[in-house]
Amino acid sequence: MAYQTINPTTDELVKSYPNHTDADIEEALDAADKLYHSEWSKGPIQPRLDVLERLADLIDARKEELERIATVEMGKIITDARDEVAIIAEIARFFARNAEKFLAPTKIDSELGDAWIERHPIGALMVVEPWNFPYYQLMRVFAPALAAGNPVLAKHASIVPHCASVFEELVNEAGAPKGAWKNLFVTSGQVADIIADERVRGAAMTGSERAGSAIAAQAGKHMKKSTLEMGGNDVFVVLDDADLEKAVELGVYSRLHIGGQECICAKRFVLHERIADEFLEKFTEAMKNVKVGDPLDEKTKLGPLSSASALEGLSKQVDRALEHGATLHLGGKAIEGTGNFFEATILTNVTRENPAYFEEFFGPVAQVYVVKDDDEAVELANDSRYGLAGAVFSQNIERAKAMASRIETGGIWINTFASTAPELPFGGVKHSGYGRELSELAINEFVNQQLVLVAK
Ligand code: NAP
Questions:
Q1: How many domains does the chain fold into?
Q2: Residue at 347 is within a domain
């Protein structure tokens, strides 16, 4: 695996990064383990929370530089990069200000005596993260781990080494001790060896099902706890009483966010038959007029895909969907010239026999389905291997709430698109994974929830 920054807008190789050696890994494991057994991990929480506060301030102070690094490295438009950098500072502050409360002992009513649950760190974690949110994904695992006292070894995606390096630099500058966070440019085989190591007690993975299942298998074999944050095929349901202007505007935004390369963005548009034609007409017009181009230009709404292989994969996926009978309503191909650009695309008439029906399109490709009523919308939503997020648009909130409870996903949004905030738990069911990141739930994933009982 070569760790390289290749600008997806210009195809230019910006920089290559050398891999870490087995000796580097041993040093990282040793540092993490020593830290875990030290006062830093097991002692008072305040010094750890202070690091998170300082980290948030450092991020704010360097935000423009960080935004630009992400845009150059993986092509997200600068306005999306700005949102990402803002939220990572918020996540750091959220855990700095709430972790003590989240980790506080909780009392249990028991007839056997005075009982409570304490929350203690469990040891070093191995985390494997994707490129689409090159800072946010790291902060989602780092902030709760640091607060709880778990050291982290991190393998970031090989196409975002600059983001990986600068994140580590910020953590060190914020005063985290050696071992608290170690970025490793390593191979899949080395990741497997790290997970197998006795000093590592858990693994968190965000990315594809293929990689997730490999990492979960390695963790399971060695009896380590794991969490998986995988892909999604989220529905964006528009009912016949929805505010259509708003649904169109947010639908386009959600489908094209991060060039369509987001786990929780709208992927399957499920339209009530009474508004389907009107929605599709407006949605098509808006998708057609989206400004495609340089992601550093403030006016651009759709930048390039993150890599040449992502472009190739998406092109093949769309071709396959068409070969299996889907109708190309808009777009459908790579844009010729420099960079990994793909047209804003709409597919209709995707039948259940079409492989596209069950696939996640990681790019600006919307699938459109028409349903006759709420039951059919729910049935279609749940006819998916995934269960990450989704959205329901209706002006009848009770109707939307009833539908939301029937959709099998880790999260569901009403009258807005699926999004994220530090206090909102994030995760899925089915092939979208298990476990939760962010919120109070995150911090409980990798702690020893230790029972203490004092006999009567
Ligand atoms: P990916 O190929 O699985 O890559 C993700 C990370 O896993 C990268 O660091 C990659 O390293 C590493 N990796 C791949 N195979 C591995 C293995 N066998 N052992 C150890 N590490 C391995 O995923 P992707 O295609 O880049 O990311 C897109 C997927 O992530 C989509 O399905 C998306 O929906 C999902 N995602 C989910 C969430 C969520 O929170 N649920 C958030 C963001 C993205 P290399 O880069 O070196 O290959």
A1: 2
A2: yes
